Amino acid sequence: MSWVQRLPLLADSIQEGVLTRERIGRSYGSTILACYPHYHISSKSQERADLRSAKKVTWKQAVSITPWQLFQISKPETKKGKPMTTEDAPSGAPLKPLVFRVDETTPEVVQSVLLECGWDKFDEKRQNVEDWNLYWRTSSFRMTEHIRVKPWQRLNHHPGTTKLTRKDHLAKHLKHMRRMYSTSLYEFIPLTFVMPNDYIKFVAEFCKEKQTLGTKQSYWICKPAELSRGRGIIIFNDLRDLIFNDTHIVQKYICNPLLVGRYKCDLRVYVCVTSFKPLTIYVYQEGLVRFATEKFDLSNLQDFYAHLTNSSINKSGASYGKIKEVVGQGCKWTLSRFFSYLRNWDVDDLLLWQKINSMVILTVLAMAPSVPLADNCFELFGFDILIDDNLKPWLLEVNCSPALSLDCPTNVLVKRKLIHDVIELVYLNGLRNEDKEHGKATNGNSFSKSDQCKLREAHGSLPYEALLQFKSRTYSSSDTVEEKAVRLLPKHTRTSQLREMMNEQKDLLVPTRQAPRLMSRHTPHEAFVPYASLIRSHPCKAKVSPGIPPDPGQAPSPHAGNFVLIFPFNEATLGASRNGLNVKQIIQELQKLTNKRHPQVEKNKTNRR
Ligand code: ADP
After folding, report:
1. At what angle do helices 583-608 and 349-367 cross, to 10 degrees?
2. Residue 496 — very low, low, confident or very high, per pLDDT cuts 50/70/90?
3. Which ligand 1 atom is nearest residue 167's CA?
4. Is 379 in the pocket of ligand 1 (CB under 6 A)?
5. 223 lines ligand 1 (CB under 6 A)
6. Each residue's pLDDT tens digit, 152-194
7. What is the top-level taxon of the source organism (predicted)?
8. At what angle do helices 481-488 and 463-470 cross, to 10 degrees?
9. What is the pLDDT of residue 526?
10. Residue 314: CB within 6 Å of ligand 1?
């Protein structure tokens, strides 16, 4: 919707033909900002000063003026060129870019991406203490900082997320969910015991397994609950090797990992929760695959370069710089390269991706009901996922403040764009929170009847149907919903370049051990449509209104950059997330999805036979 099309929305806020910055900023700032993301709605103190010289314009004049004249802002000049289009460009108005705040722990890449995007760095000597829009740091914020946050400000951490990010807490929460909802859906974390409390239970399990396996070995891994980067880890098959002093977890060691070449790997999947109430989860379509740098070998459990996939360890390995079988040099791939590799083996990467998405939703769901309410914040998580040779994904760990160092070309490729896309995503969704705040007085947290109607009219009944309307494009009526969705996905996550890279490596793809289990074939695009099967199973009910973005504050945006909305994923879960988070109903919906997927897999297997 153009600025002029949006102006009538401002009519309500015009009293006696006067538009003030304050009224527009408070009531419609988010609508305007959604269209023009480089506007800066300033803090109260600044507003007060500005109000003294507030522009008084009549409605007629208002229609003819541009938003930057209204806000007294100008086109931001960035190194990378113009963020606004030339037809939008005002002439000679002063610039007020958005302002970010950092501390000594803020990753360098965050600062450089924000500067490139035309943001200003907060300077406490020059600026008012409240004059910033985004505070990004590695450590969490104190509750008082959350309470004091202003409507125009965003924090990059949500309070209470350690429930997921401490290894012992994660295990306890997931165990609790499995018991509470008696569902096998939660069987994606390896059997885990928290030491020292569970020591007796662990020993009993260890002995039971020894008996069952007979002469075969039983493998376990012991990890400090609070440490990271592979520090303090022990892998053992003899009880006498288990040593711990403070809180550790002892976990079943996955001894049949999916190997690339002969190297173990795990996935770093980025997830952004833009709101816990209502729960809104995005998964990043690109990510990292981290490799061990020595060949996997169960006969030497002490070789961490073969058993741990942490880059911090493998960077210093003797084979890091060598060209390794299939993996190549270094210890990282992009996720898209990995999926491309799997497709070359005829693996159903879509099914794998769907399982990962379900796992992400179920994990966040384990903590969502108990996190404190805090609107103006978001959390970028790094999920560490190990795939076994049956293509089952296992959750190893969830990291808050995932590493953002740019110490290798793959990191640069993935992480710069990641930060860029987080800003884009949070920007859209943060503004929704601002809207929500205004709506709270009347609607509370519930999803009103009129909201539901508007949602249906504006977005159709499913979030991914909104995706079909989001971009300005006319669809042919013969296009299937799936085709439309596939076309709208970010193209560069599966470039032909990556395919070429894979083809170049064809000679290296000679299996050195059993190939990953064969699954159904599908188009390469589908791998990056997390709920393509779901889309396929629902006819598009929405009328397509090309070019009209959804009204902010109603339903979450279906995607931003490479982030794709995975929760809520249908109308039922949208409702369940709004109305006090009905976990039971959400789990039932996920169960339905899983049940739906399996007949398809069975059918594919039968066809192949
Ligand atoms: P940290 O926080 O120290 O990185 P992780 O739980 O991520 O701890 O474990 C480090 C590495 O150890 C993982 O990247 C993975 O390669 C390996 N690992 C951890 N748990 C298991 C497990 N249960 N089975 C197999 N490998 C594991």
Report:
1. 170
2. very low
3. 6
4. no
5. yes
6. 999 999 998 877 889 999 999 999 999 999 888 999 999 999 9
7. Eukaryota
8. 60
9. 36
10. no
The span from the first CA to the last CA of the chain, in angstroms, equals 52
Distance in Å, CA 98 to ligand 1 centroid = 39
Q: Is 254 in the pocket of ligand 1 (CB under 6 A)?
A: yes
Q: Is the CB of 229 under 6 A from ligand 1?
A: yes
Which of 168, 163, 164, 299 lies closest to 222, judged by CA? Answer: 168
Q: Which of 154, 75, 164, 148 is nearest to 110 (CA)?
A: 154
Scanning the structure block, which residue is given the tokens 């971009």? 471
Residues 413-445: tens digit of each pLDDT = 999 999 999 999 987 654 444 444 433 322 333
Quote the CA–CA distance of 17 and 19 in Å, as a whole number: 7
CA 571/CA 49 separation, integer angstroms = 45
For the residues 494-499, what does the mean pLDDT come to? 28
Q: Checking phi first, is residue 17 left (phi over 0); if not, alpha (psi -120 to 50) or beta?
A: left
190 Cα–ligand 1 center, Å: 11
pLDDT for position 281: 97
Look at residue 182 in the predicted model and tell me its pLDDT.
80
To the question of pTM greater than 0.85 for the whole model, the response is no
What is the tens place of the pLDDT at every residue in 50-85?
A: 433 333 333 333 333 333 232 323 333 444 433 333
Q: What is the phi/psi pair of residue 329, to 5°? A: -85, 155
- The maximal CA–CA distance of the chain, rounded, in angstroms, is 88
Burial 403-417 (b: 16+ CB within 10 A, else e): bbebebebbebbbbb
**Tokens at 540, concatenated:** 């598009």
Nearest alpha carbon, ligand 1 atom 14: 309
Task: Spell out a b/e string for 450-476, using b for 16 or more CB atoms within 10 Å of the CB, else e.
Answer: ebbebbbebbbbbbbbbbbbbeeeebe
Nearest one of 396, 309, 387 to 352, comparing CA atoms:
387
State the distance from the centre of ligand 1 to the C-alpha of 292, rounded, in angstroms: 11
Give residue 253's pLDDT. Answer: 98
pLDDT at 19: 37
Cβ atoms of 271 and 282 closer than 8 Å: yes
